[in-house]
Amino acid sequence: MQLPNSAAKLLSLAILVVPAVTALDCVKEVDHKKEYTSNGKVYKLYCNSEIKPLTPAERTSNVATAEECADLCAQKSDCRHAFYSAKSKICFLRPPQTSIREKFFQNMVASVGNTWGWIYDRDVPANTGNPGSNLGSGTGSNPGSGTGSNPGSGTGSNPGSGTGSNPGSGTGPTTPPSSGNQAEYDCTNNKDHKKLFSINGRTFELLCGYGNHHTGYQTIPNVNSLRDCAEKCALDSSCGNAEYHTGSGDCELEPDNNPVLAPGYHLWVPKFCPDTPRAQNAVTNPPQTTDLSCPMNDGHIYEGVDGTWYYIQCCSDSSAAVVTGFAQAQNHKDCLDKCSLDEKCSSVSFDTAAVNNCKFYGPGNYSTVHKPGIHHHYATSPPTSAPDHFGSKRCSTECPEADGQIFASPSGENFVMSCKKRHGTTYLKAVPDQYPSFASCMTACGALPACQSVDYEAKTQNCYFSTNSKSPTIAAKAFMSAHSAGCSGACAGCADESCKDLKKGPLGPRKYGCPANHGKPITIKGVDFQVACQHAINSHPYNQVTAGSYEECIELCTDKADCGGVNWIGTTCYHHPDNNADGSSAFVHQRADSDAYVKIPGHLYTSLSQAP
């Protein structure tokens, strides 16, 4: 039967199928270990798997989908894995995983399809938008495309030509945090030889053409992926090496670390410290990271839970700082978190082997003291980006040039202007006044004693008065806003000690000696000393040492096994042994013209604790 042209067109539209977003499936586990990207971070899905630790966890109810749970995790720097219960619609945000039992619940009827685990895997490479999960919403011959944090992408036999139902607006982060993990590893022509992979707080280095000739304790068949082989070893605390068999694709887990040349094999070996020679200075523009794994993130900066930025030095200890305390930490991140929340701690060392494995320090700097098993962090300057010198224009009241500028109203009230933001707090008038410009809106506010801020919408010319004297926080493309910074001259002059402080100039270099640090432990070049002001060591034979300062006097003692401490008398340095050569008692006593610095631990340190 021949259809009229109009009917044929209607029928062709009716049978046109635009593909929908395919939901992830954990019931049949077809999407197990599938990747998902959100906020510049790539996560792997673990279906019906047990992931530890279970605590601490941040609980969020009424989460509609597993993907939304991953999105919540991606927004928080301290979330490293997330658990989603499909039945209860609850999302748990958790710290880095310590163990994974894949598909542990697959034979438990009540749990199958209910247990979704998201594990942070890596960051999206720099200068690229994140792969989008929303399809193009139009129709035509070209797939929808976008760039930025959530680009659209059309698919199917007749993909959309739009930009996606949630297109990105930018080109992706220019300097995103970096974990260094690759999606895949390849030993063809030694392409990825000595590349690193980090997960579960462990870092492994790939040695192409190497193997471990010892017998492994487990061989996993048909892994067929160098990366997956490394991951299986990293998640097993008893695994020392992971040997990949190129012929069969098997992965053999070894209990020891014994790399040897072996054609036909590739070996993952543990990597704890950066390659030598080590850098002698901090990186000028260090990259950011959300991962503390060493040595992959050596020379990176990390944002602590309190917002302070820390410089990461793997296999290093403090070169010179006052010890302010000790703590027991569950892991590397836990140690830095504890320091971030301690008001006296501004640098910290995590010792992977000690009992009190988290040592707090006062202010620290870049250290050239390198010690395997210890990772050092010190508070540093936050990251910066190049300013847009032409993004603002003085005296402008039009956006975007007015953003961040000051407007002085005729009444003397100063307003700080913000573009694409609004306050959104309760307005003084139920029905807003209308003014022809942003400037006239601010002028009207300045004439009202009760008015402290305005939200102005240029399209409607509505001017909203409110009493919020703080910066606006609500993103709103159609609005301009301003808040009061007080009247001209209101804060002139000095009403407190600030002017005196200004005349004194900046603070001098930080010291760790006497008298400020009497009775405190300090760490010099990775060696601990106890400060004893107006005390002297009595032990022999002692040596007079040439040193230009007490700092140099102590530093020269750190590397000497026969030096148990120093006396700094006037401007002279004396090195003393921890015990007397003749076996008589060595001790520390009070002396007004001497300051003593005693190594910890030792006989002299014990004597000092008993000194008056």
From TrEMBL:
One of the Pfam families matching this protein, by short name: PAN_1
Annotated region described as Disordered, given as residue ranges: 129-187
User: What UniProt keywords are attached to this protein's entry?
Assistant: Signal
Query: Where in the sequence does UniProt note compositional bias of the Gly residues kind?
Result: 135-171
What are the Apple domain coordinates in residue numbering?
A: 47-109, 187-273
Give the matching PROSITE patterns. Answer: PAN
- Could you name the domain of life of the organism this protein comes from? Eukaryota
Q: Which SMART domains match?
A: PAN_AP
Establish whether keyword Signal is in the entry: yes
Signal sequence interval, chain numbering:
1-23
Q: What is this protein called?
A: Apple domain-containing protein
| Organism encoding this protein | Beauveria bassiana D1-5
